[in-house]
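Annex B. Sample input.
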Amino acid sequence: MNTWKNIDFSNDELGHYSRHLSIPEFGMEGQKKLKAAKVVAVGTGGLGAPMLQYLAAAGVGTIGIVDFDKIEASNLHRQILFGSSDVGRSKVEVAKERLQEINPHINIQIHETRLTSENALEILDQYDVVADGTDNFPTRYLINDACVMLDKPNVHGSIFQFEGQLSVFNYVDEEENRGPNYRDLFPEPPPPGLVPDCAEAGVLGVLPGIIGCLQASEVIKIITGIGQPLSGELFLFDAQDFSTRKVNVTKNEDNPLRGENPEITELIDYEAFCGIPSTNGEQKESKSEVPEVTVEQYQSWLDSGEEVQLIDVREPYEVEIAEMGGELIPLDTVLNKTDKISRDKKVVVHCRSGVRSAKAINKLQEEYDFDNLYNLKGGILAWSEKVDESIPQY
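Annex B, continued. Sample output.
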């Protein structure tokens, strides 16, 4: 951590932090340590939004924010750092504005980029503590490996529907004992598509607020040395029955980073590691590329009277929110319902954004040699934006 003993506060700062200063175990020393610290949050979504607000309010002196996304209407039910007037704006820019309003006495550094193997070490090395608020496995493994290589603690959180998880990885205690890292808990990622993201599975809006606040609490404990960080343990929370439990996380001697025979000495291709096809053309998920059609092209087919079948591979609850017609065949049932898919005309397959529909086409091409399928680029979101604004974005 940075030196803190020579830190000073203005009168305004002392007023802002007065309730911290009143805690005997926290006091001026704890507040000085916070002001001297540098924390980076990767992701400003459901977890990052509440975590960043409380870290800013608490007085973490330098906060870094890494994200490349724009704000969408579907973010607002859980990412309460943002408002409806912010839709379409840069998340990191809006986050910086809001956090400076919460606490004008701190420094906010934004990194409007996707965290990759090429930039992770350079970005994360600027900070003392890393907080992982991401929602995909490649980035989680990337953050973990970079933190191990840089000797940084990694405060990890994850959410799914009604359930949340929290742990502190790669933490070194006062006796120089190093705790386990993410690869000790999850040596291998799940198969691609097995764990749906928030767009597919949904998430209770308050859940990331709960887990994100707990992440902020762990960050503060690490910085100040107050309390016992959640190292070597995984905290599990279920909002449906309000159950909580902690399970032990032990070191794995086969861990390729810190095990007996470490194999990983530099950052790798994490999308390939997680079984996700590369976007640079060197890898493909199937034997052929997925043909695409833009929403404008699809509209022109309809306008010209061409006979086209539309397949919707979303879930039934999504159709209740927004629909553009078509035969509903959810992704996990598509291989069992090929009799409903025409081989004699163009078939356009769509989902919310184009990801699941591409997976469906890959499966159908590989298993049943379909050659007349087209992925609707951008899915129903693009259709709503460019063709029919009456269809809600979600």
